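Protocol step 4 of 5: obtain the predicted structure for the target chain.
Materials: sequence only (see below). No template structures provided, no constraints applied. The aim of this step is simply to have a reference model before the mutagenesis design in step 5. Sequence pasted as it appears in the construct record:
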Amino acid sequence: YSLKASEQKMERLLKEETEDHEEGEEHYELAVAMGRFQLYANKLWFSGIAGNTELSDFYYHELEEAMEEVAEEELTENGQSISEQIKIWGLEPLEKLEEAVDSGDKQAFEQSYDALVSSCNGCHVTCGYSWVRIKRPETPAFDNQWYTKN
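Step 4 output (structure tokens):
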């Protein structure tokens, strides 16, 4: 299993999602949105631990926009309103992470990031996806990006 294969699969899913919307289908692919969450959270982590506040802020806002999109979709899975759950489990802890990003306090950033990850896992359990477990990233999603400041 390689990073390249993961990237290609995500690109294929994004293309399928775009084609579905162009054809007028009302289906919203939650897995694609979750992939975006994971990508932005990965980049947020590496820019945050590198102390690059400007880049961390950028990825924080990308993650927030992706979550807000899901919140607006009125999605239901396994009898749970994913859109409502994302407001509680995603957007609320993300606000605390923004404060840590803005402060530049590395310890506060790590604690807030871990709290967000824990919250994501809580949401997965609540929504019937307990087998989807997220953790702190160990390697960047893309190794061709500088996460440090210039």
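Step 4 remarks: Strands lie at 76-77, 80-81. The first helix runs from residue 3 to 22.
Proceed to step 5.
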